[in-house]
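Hi both,

Apologies for the delay on this - the queue was longer than expected. I finally got the flavin mononucleotide-bound model through. Below you'll find the protein sequence and the ligand SMILES exactly as submitted, and right after that the structure tokens for the full complex including the ligand.
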Amino acid sequence: MPPPPDLPAGPSPTDWRRGLRMPLVEAMETQRAVRRLRPDPVDDDLVLELCRLAQKAPSGGNRQLVEFLVVRDPATKHQLARLNRQAWALYKRLAGAQARGDLRMARILAAVQWQADHFEDVPVVVVVCQRGRPWPGPLGRLSWYGSVFPAVQNLLLAARAVGLGATLTTLPLWSRTLARRTLNLPRTVTPCAVIPLGWPLRGGYGPTTRRPPAEVVHLDVWGRHPAPSDGAEER
Ligand SMILES: Cc1cc2nc3c(=O)[nH]c(=O)nc-3n(C[C@H](O)[C@H](O)[C@H](O)COP(=O)(O)O)c2cc1C
């Protein structure tokens, strides 16, 4: 269905397919949470392509238990928005107290608030699910959850490449029971991540702020860091 005349359409399939060719390093260096999204429609084929690329990620034993629920239904989005707001109401009090005087954190919290206020208007939400329940034992849990997030990151990188705003969220999943009920999922399926997708309202993607390698890399011995170098430093 064509978009209503008052809403600009997103890029054409030719343009977003070209976008997917973005150099990997550029995508990795500029992939960040984009929470302020326009309600403009997002092409079904594009969402399917993002899921296909996500599904290329590794999984424990190559079991490939990750599946994607693409939500466009307004009533379901409304319920997800409610769940998100419930968790956010609690979280923002904790995070807000910690962020006092920290401008960068205050900016993030403002964006999360914006997302909470406009969740229903997001054109499409992808819920990344996994068949089954976390496997028992520390190694089981590690492998089970560890099989979901490579796919999530692939999806985020692909969204970044085409310029489609996306954020990895888990707040809407604070209650697995309520999330399953909202999404009409069988008990044999576990929702693990919720990714609102839409064309950015503002500038969208750009450089991220991350700790530099000289701080987070340890050479053979924990605490022995590489020397800082201009090329390897956070930009
Ligand atoms: C496991 C996980 C859960 C997250 N849950 C949420 C969430 O519920 N809501 C949200 O707005 N962002 C969520 N985020 C996004 C982080 O807040 C974001 O990646 C981080 O602040 C870095 O921001 P940047 O990517 O914009 O640099 C989550 C990220 C991860 C890895």
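Main takeaway for now: Residues 99 and 107 are 10 Å apart (CA to CA).

I'll put the files on the shared drive as well.

H.
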